[in-house]
């Protein structure tokens, strides 16, 4: 796995975009702090840049680096999640404008996947994670079902977990306000 992380890291650090397995479905990703790389993802997916993307973090405490005013107990709230959960937070900070939603919010998931966690820690920055599909097409159930056109638009395809056939469900999505109130967007 270390060799694969090194190869993937080199692509991310050079501003490239990757196709990679996450704790949910296969995703397209890049260094979330690189606006040019984020633009490449919108182009590869043929996605309107008004539709924001999510980012993955390795540790719950890192939410405080990218959200201006999260709930003070957000770390323990994240630890309590029993399955992959993406949280929409108000007041994103430290991220490119083309990654942040027009209302200033950002969607963040703290990954439990060992490969993603290691990659993010080595990169020392969050990863963009958006489903590996052309905008409007269904999300792929496995690596084998990813559109070959999309595979040709990324700079690197991670050679890890490609053979898995079991479809993982996408993450649950919650909106958590600074006061701790929660709204379920997708369960």
Automatic annotation (TrEMBL):
The record places domain YrdC-like at 2-187
Its catalytic activity? L-threonine + hydrogencarbonate + ATP = L-threonylcarbamoyladenylate + diphosphate + H2O
GO BP terms, alphabetized? regulation of translational fidelity; tRNA processing
An example of a Gene Ontology cellular component annotation for this protein is: cytoplasm
In short, the EC number is 2.7.7.87
Uppermost EC category = transferase
Which superkingdom, per the lineage? Bacteria
The record, for Pfam families, names: Sua5_yciO_yrdC
The molecular function terms of the Gene Ontology recorded here are: ATP binding; double-stranded RNA binding; L-threonylcarbamoyladenylate synthase; tRNA binding
Q: Where in the cell is it found?
A: Cytoplasm
Q: Which UniProt keywords apply?
A: ATP-binding, Cytoplasm, Nucleotide-binding, Nucleotidyltransferase, Transferase, tRNA processing
Where does the UniProt entry say this protein principally localizes? cytoplasm
Can you tell me which residues the record assigns to a coiled coil? Answer: none
PANTHER family in UniProt: SUA5 (PTHR17490), THREONYLCARBAMOYL-AMP SYNTHASE (PTHR17490:SF16)
Spell out the family assignment given in the record's similarity comment. Answer: Belongs to the SUA5 family.
Name under which the protein is recorded:
L-threonylcarbamoyladenylate synthase
Protein's organism: Taibaiella chishuiensis
């Amino acid at each position: 796995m270390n060799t694969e992380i090194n190869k993937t890291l080199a692509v991310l650090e050079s501003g490239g975009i990757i196709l990679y397995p996450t704790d949910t479905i296969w995703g397209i990703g890049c260094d979330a702090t690189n606006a040019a790389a984020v633009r490449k993802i919108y182009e590869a997916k043929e996605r309107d840049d008004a539709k924001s993307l999510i980012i993955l973090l390795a540790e719950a405490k890192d939410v405080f680096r990218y959200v201006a005013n999260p709930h003070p107990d957000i770390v323990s709230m994240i630890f309590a999640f029993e399955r992959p959960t993406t949280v929409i937070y108000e007041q994103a900070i430290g991220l490119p404008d083309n990654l942040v939603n027009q209302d200033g919010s950002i969607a963040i998931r703290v990954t439990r996947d060992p490969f993603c966690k290691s990659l993010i820690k080595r990169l020392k920055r969050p990863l963009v994670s958006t489903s590996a599909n052309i905008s409007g097409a269904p999300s792929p159930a496995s690596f084998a079902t990813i559109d070959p056109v999309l595979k040709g638009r990324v700079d690197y395809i991670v050679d890890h977990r490609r053979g898995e056939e079991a479809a993982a469900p996408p993450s649950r999505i919650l909106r958590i306000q600074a006061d701790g109130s929660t709204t379920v967007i997708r369960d």
